[in-house]
Amino acid sequence: VLINELSGLRVLEMRLRENLSLSEVIIVPGDSDKEPWIKNEMGKAAAMRLKQELTGHHVIAVTGGTTTASVAEMMTPGTKDQDLLFVPARGGLGEKVENQANTICSTMAAKARGKYRLLHLPDQLSKETYLSLMEEPGVKEVMELIHSASIVIHGIGDAKTMANRRNSSSAVLEKLEREKAVAEAFGYYFNQKGEVVHRVRTIGLQLNDLKHSDFIMAVAGGSSKAEAIAAFMKHGPKKVLVTDEGAANKLLSGT
Ligand code: G3H
Predict the structure, then answer these.
(1) Which of 19, 93, 197, 211 is most buried, taking the most CB atoms under 10 A from its CB?
(2) pLDDT range class, residue 46, cuts 50, 70, 90
(3) pLDDT in tens, 12-28
(4) Which ligand 1 atom is the nearest neighbour of the CA of 39?
(5) Which of 32, 41, 68, 105 to mutate to test the pocket of ligand 1 (most atoms within 8 A of CB)?
(6) How far is the CA of 214 from the centre of ligand 1 (A)?
(7) Is the pLDDT reported for residue 109 higher than 70?
(8) Looking at the predicted structure, is the pLDDT value of residue 228 above 90?
């Protein structure tokens, strides 16, 4: 039974990889919406896949969220020839501390026995503050590291869920509704076609910067995220997706 189940998953992975034009898809059994522990399984699969990339020196940028937090928890120490530096992909997005990129980045570094650098920034920045912070030497230094990241690990969220979780203003909530936002990643909100309809102003990786990274891994699952995953993957960058059966089945059924 187990062998059949596994080969079923391999077929699902292949179909989803083609369907979303990704370079690689890893699917864990179950649906994390129904069984929350499945998120840990995604975390484990993502950490194992990530470790294959980690020989020599790497700067790894990570985003916030409960799913990337599971990846961090599942990281294990590397070998002596590794020199790993973890950085948050972007500054504050309005998340609780346990879901912030900074927290996840430091946990991941501790578990992998790597180093880390953090971005200490307030969440909602005015344009003036944003521009002057960008001139701070300490911020500039971390920004350069973030831009040099060869590996990026990120979550994908349902737009409404993320906007509510981050206590977004009613003006932002209305805008997202009006623009029919369905997905969120890196603080950017996307409509069904994968077009950016809103973004949170914070420093760190901008969407366009991603084309410079060699290895980009999205970790997102649960059937409720199917539409969000499809929308984000239309925008790209199209690399590696770690997801669960719940999201994969819904994505392939086209609903
Ligand atoms: O950007 C995406 C979100 O951070 C995903 O959050 O993993 O808690 O669903 P989540």
Answers:
(1) 93
(2) very high
(3) 999 999 999 999 999 99
(4) 7
(5) 68
(6) 22
(7) yes
(8) yes
Angle ∠(66,156,172) on CA atoms, nearest 5: 95
Distances (CA, A) of 88 to 68, 106, 138, 198, 247: 11, 9, 14, 21, 26
What's the pLDDT band for 1 if we cut at 50, 70, 90? low
Q: Which residues contact 90 (CB under 8 A, 6 or more apart)?
A: 63, 101, 119, 186, 187, 202, 203, 204, 205
Residues with CB under 6 A from ligand 1: 63-67, 155-157, 162, 184-185
Tokens 């995953």, residue? Answer: 229
Q: What is the pLDDT of residue 247?
A: 98
CB 237 within 8 A of CB 211: yes
CB 58 within 8 A of CB 209: no
Give 171: exposed, middle or buried? Use CB within 10 Å, 0-12, 13-18, 19+: exposed
245 pLDDT more than 80: yes
Give 213's Cβ-side CA count (13 Å radius). 30
Q: What percent of the chain has pLDDT over 70?
A: 96
